[in-house]
Amino acid sequence: VGVRLVPALPEEGSRGVLRHLRLDWPSSPAGPALPEAVSALKRALGRCPRAAACRQAPGAAALPEDVVCEVHLKGFVEQQGLAGYDPNLDVLLVTEEKLRSLAELQQAVLRCAVSDPAALPASRCQGSGCSVVHVVSCEEEFQQQQLDLLWRILDPGAHTASQKYLVCGPVKVTNPSSPIGADQYFQLRKHQMYEASVMKYGELAEDEAWTEVIDTLTVAAIRFEMLSTAHRSQITLDLENSSISTKGTKSGAFVMYNCARLATLFDTYQRAVERGTYPPLPPASELNFSCLREEGEWLLLFNYLLPFPEVLQQAAQLPPPSKGIRITANTEMVCKFLIQLSMDFSSYYNRVHILGEPFPHLFDQMFARLQLLGAVRDVFHSALATLHLPPLSQI
Asked: pLDDT, tens digit, for every residue of 23-32?
């Protein structure tokens, strides 16, 4: 099933932050595409039986000048048997701004279908083969439902057969000294990550080569801060919170640090193989896994490696089509899984010496442990990929 995420388009000032966070977010199309799309919607309104000239009640305030017409949504919802929509949806005053928003939404979906090589072709995004997911805050859902229904009325069957809503709770800031926007929030977290890195790694963190590392750690910290809470719940940001650091065991930086430890381990082993210190890792079928006797080794296997597919299924699978319009995406499950995995892996790695002395009688145990930790590394990479985070090769 093809899925298109259609969020409200960001303000110009937020787009730089989205680029920093490595989010591919829709933007207003350039050139004549948007005005042409708005004109097409106006022509569709002229043919629409549910559209009518605005009837102003006596004594009511004058209507805005950019009102095009009114469209009766409630009757359409009842006729189509659509469930889950706000019962207060009734008559919509269609303005130039709403038509522009709808045109932007249409163009965003069309561009996703064309530009994403992994997506279904646009010609197959018809009927039930394509889902459009509106990502909205709880305050914006009513207005987005209006656009959803207007889209259904004016462009039936295009991309509208399955529209769902991923509704996000509010984001609050504790004791803000002044209003803070997305850009200030990102820069604050980046500065905190830089300061924490300098405290932990000293002058190394001041080198230009660390710029990309600190950027990645900042993105990870923000994503975990946002996605560790169920999307329906309120997020409270403590801008002075020291857990946004390299030390806090609940943060995205801690997860990235442990992922980098695994990369360093295997890089060290590979260099030792090239020097002839250790032999290459044999195939898994030739290894003696009875050498794994540490409790931490079996904990990694039974608590993380074996359950990981089920965690992914529960966290990422969209529910089957239903009469309701709301869906859930349990990103907090992946975040909590990664944090707990990092804690247990870190505990094991601090206790157990993986690369021992290069004596042949110790190789069986070393090979078994490397095979186990290679699987742990793969789980780290796969889970981080669901959050669109690249693994760090070193810190």
From this structure: 766 565 556 7
| Average pLDDT value for the chain | 82
CATH number for the domain running over 182-387: 1.10.730.10
**Class (C level, CATH) for 12-54+63-113+129-168:** alpha beta
Task: For residues 369 and 291, give the distance between their C-alpha atoms in angstroms, rounded to a whole number.
Answer: 8
Q: How large is the angle between the packed helices 141-154 and 73-80, nearest 10 degrees? A: 70
Contact assessment for residue 346 and residue 376, using Cβ atoms and an 8 Å cutoff: no
* Segments of the chain scoring below 70 in pLDDT: 1-16, 24-31, 55-63, 112-130, 157-161, 204-206, 241-250, 316-323
C-alpha closest to that of 190 among 157, 151, 225, 227: 225
Kindly report whether the global pTM for this prediction surpasses the value 0.85: no
Beta strands in the chain (DSSP E): 2-7, 51-52, 67-72, 91-95, 130-137, 162-168, 171-173, 235-237
